[in-house]
Amino acid sequence: MSDVSRQTADTPNAADEQTPQPTAYDLIGGEARVRELVDRFYDLMDLEPEFAGLRALHPPSLDGSRDKLFWFLCGWLGGPNHFIERFGHPRLRARHLPFEIGISERDQWMRCMAMAMQDVGLSEDLQMRLLQALFQTADWMRNVAR
Ligand code: HEM
Q1: Residue nearest to atom 27 of ligand 1 (CA)
Q2: Distance (Å, rounded) from C-alpha 41 to C-alpha 86?
Q3: Domain ranges, ordered by start, for the chain
């Protein structure tokens, strides 16, 4: 077997069996890139009139929100569990119960995140995969029927 055919025939299997697949955290580029994404997300929430309703649910200063979402997403993406180390189990739905979250809030959150991913230059493929997974979480956070 030539080297070329060996590569095409063997590399995918060898990679599956021996090398751990990179996590989404690795694919994004680690902690600094996750922070960049979260910062862009909250900058857009602050700036864009279409997110005014979502912004109004948050405290006047977004500093704490930035840290918490950053810590959470690091672990959610397969990186270090900063959020759990600080606060224990995320109990994300319970933590969102104080805020009225319906379809409009869910969709603003998703659109804001999609714009942030685009702005920081995540690959199309990664954007699609992450947005699909995040939609499940965002939809599950809905707690009012409207
Ligand atoms: C569905 C629409 C959503 C709305 C309207 C919303 C809104 C909020 C608000 C108002 C806060 C409080 C901010 C603060 O205390 O500084 C918060 C906290 C938080 N949100 Fe969301 N959120 C949504 C979806 C999500 C999603 C999809 C995630 C995760 C992927 C997420 C992760 C978090 C985390 C980790 C916190 C901090 C929780 C804590 O420790 O209190 N949120 N969210």
Answers
A1: 138
A2: 22
A3: 22-140
> Can you give the pTM of this predicted structure?
0.89
The CATH class of 22-140 is: mainly alpha
CA of 123 to the centre of ligand 1 (A): 24
Question: Cβ neighbours of residue 9 under 8 Å, at least 6 residues apart?
Answer: 1
pLDDT tens, 8-29?
444 555 555 678 899 999 999 9
Q: How far, in Å, is the centroid of ligand 1 from the Cα of 96?
A: 6
Please list every protein residue whose CB sits less than 6 Å from any atom of ligand 1: 54, 57-59, 64-65, 68-69, 72, 87, 92, 95-96, 99, 101, 105-106, 109, 134, 137-138, 141
Give the nearest ligand 1 atom to 54 CA.
5
Q: pLDDT digits over 109-129, tens only?
A: 999 999 999 999 999 999 999
Q: In Å, how far from its chain's centre is CA 20?
A: 21
